[in-house]
Amino acid sequence: MIQPNPMMCGACCTPLNYVSDAFGARYAHPAWVGKTWDHAAVPVPRDESRQRGVCDFCASDHPVTAFYTRKAIVQDEGGKTHVFSEPWASCERCAVHIRNRSPHLLLDRAVAVLPGRLNQPERQARRAALKPLYMKFFQAEPDEVAL
Questions:
Q1: Using the 8-state DSSP alphabet, how is residue 15 labeled?
Q2: Cβ contacts of residue 36 below 8 Å, gap of 6+?
Q3: Nearest Cα residue to 15 out of 47, 40, 38, 37
Q4: CA-angle at 29, arms to 106 and 12, nearest 5°
Q5: Structural contact between residues 6 and 46, judged by C-beta atoms closer than 8 angstroms
Q6: Cis-peptide into 87, omega within 30 deg
Q7: Which of 63, 101, 108, 138 is least surrounded by Cβ atoms within 10 Å, i.e. has the fewest?
Q8: pTM of the predicted model, to two decimals?
C-alpha cells in the first residue's frame, strides 16, 4: 500500500488520519473520545509552522518528540482502512513508555488521559479498541527522531 501524504486540517491545524472504506479514500479528523468536530476536515498539506501539536497516543497538546516506524501501519476497522502517517508525535510521558517498549503502560496512560469522561466499561472498551493499533506500532519497530 502506498503511504499517503501527511495532511492537516486547514481550519483547525490538527493532523488528519487517512481513511479508506467502501465510499472511497479521504482524510478525517482523529476519532477522539469526547471530542465532536464542529467542521468537516479541510485537508491541506502539513505545514509544520502551523500544525497543532498533539500527542498521537494520548491527545495532549505538548508533543516533545516523534517516532518513525520501519513499516507502514494499516488498521482495518469496521470496513474502513486507516493508514496512520508518520511521524507519530509523542508527549514526554508517552515517550517514556515507548522508549521502554511498554505497550501496556502506554495504553494505561492513553486511556486515563484521553479527552472525555468514561466509566469503567467504556475505559475497558477504549483500551480494547486501542490495543491492536498500539501493538502494531510496537511491531513496526519505532525509532525516535527529533520534532
A1: B
A2: none
A3: 47
A4: 110
A5: yes
A6: yes
A7: 101
A8: 0.69
